[in-house]
Write a structure and sequence with these properties.
33% of the residues are buried. The chain has 13 helices and 8 strands. Strands 3-2-1-4-5-6-7-8 form an 8-stranded mixed β-sheet, with helices on both faces. It is 52% helix and 13% strand. It is of the alpha/beta class. Helix 7 links the parallel strand 7 and strand 8. The longest helix is centred in the middle third of the chain and has 28 residues.
Length: 300
């Protein structure tokens, strides 16, 4: 099939390559024209330098897949595309948008007869080789049109039509919330190992053997093993952990739905705590212990 990919970053660029290798005709677009030209030379995608060129290069029903940062950038890009598209055309948002925004966008675009699909996309930089797990929301008729491309992008058994528009990003949001909890659990466990009473344990080897037959084996553990092999004490990495929004949205959804989610919530809070050079909250606690009990404090 034919489609356009807009946003050629680490994931978007690799997705174009996987689609082209799968026999699809891809129109590639990025705000950085040099990136578009380079990818076109490398993989054989058709290059477009403007949104008008993107639309002109596609045959109806036009399919445009956006892979750009969520929020304002996605909002503006979808608005610009919609202004150039016609009834029956399809916009796919493969970024990590809030599912509430995806539901709203689908409703707004439907007024013009344009379909909207939200594709929760997991796989990171490894997706080119291994495929992308895809959780896709949208109307049945739109899903049928884009299914050939989805099957090329996804590994076997890694694709699901989750339901109406918004459901794909909802499922991906919870996926990322679970990821927060798993990552925090591994992090805490390996810090306990690092400070063990048995001296300096071999952390890369421990991570390595746990990948075989252990109940905690996972792809995340594979990645942790690789990281520890390169830098056993992680001395080249600063312990500053960002979040891109999905963990916060998962916690909010849990609150809205009256679902207790203490592990995901605490995992999010741990990421936030990692960004403080020194916690004022901890200072308050130390000061209080000193005031009521005369406990010693460490001076800065």
């Amino acid at each position: 099939m034919q489609l356009a990919m807009l946003g050629l970053g680490k994931m978007g660029g690799n997705m174009v390559q996987r689609l082209v290798e799968g026999g699809h005709k891809v129109v590639a677009y990025d705000v950085d024209a040099k990136r578009t030209a380079e990818l076109s030379r490398q993989v054989g995608a058709a290059a477009a330098t403007t949104l008008d060129e993107v639309i002109a290069a596609l045959q109806p029903p036009r399919v445009c897949w956006t892979m750009v940062p969520s929020g304002k950038i996605t909002e503006e890009l979808i608005e610009k595309l919609a202004a150039r598209m016609q009834k029956g055309d399809i916009i796919i948002d493969g970024g990590n948008s809030n599912f509430h925004d995806s539901k709203r966008r689908a409703e707004e675009l439907a007024k013009s007869g344009i379909h909207f699909c939200d594709a929760g996309t997991s796989g990171g930089v490894w997706g080119l080789k291994n495929g992308y797990c895809l959780m896709v929301g949208g109307a049945d008729e739109a899903y049928r049109v884009i299914e050939p491309a989805l099957k090329t992008l996804a590994p076997e058994n890694g694709l699901m039509h989750t339901g109406p528009a918004g459901s794909g990003h909802f499922v991906k949001m919870v996926h990322n919330g679970i990821e927060y909890g798993l990552m925090t659990s591994y992090a805490e466990g390996f810090e306990i190992l690092r400070t063990s009473p048995f001296g300096e344990l071999n952390l890369p080897e421990i991570a390595g053997i746990w990948r075989y037959g252990s109940v905690v084996r996972s792809w995340l553990l594979d990645l942790l093993h690789d990281a520890l092999e390169k830098d056993p004490k992680l001395e080249t990495i600063k312990g500053f952990v960002e979040d891109s929004g999905e963990g916060r949205w998962t916690v909010q959804a849990a609150i809205d739905q009256n679902v207790p989610a203490p592990i995901i919530t605490l995992a999010l809070q741990m990421r936030i705590a990692s960004r403080q050079d020194e916690s004022f909250s901890a200072k308050v606690q130390a000061a209080l212990r000193n005031e009521f009990g005369g406990h010693a404090v460490k001076k800065s």
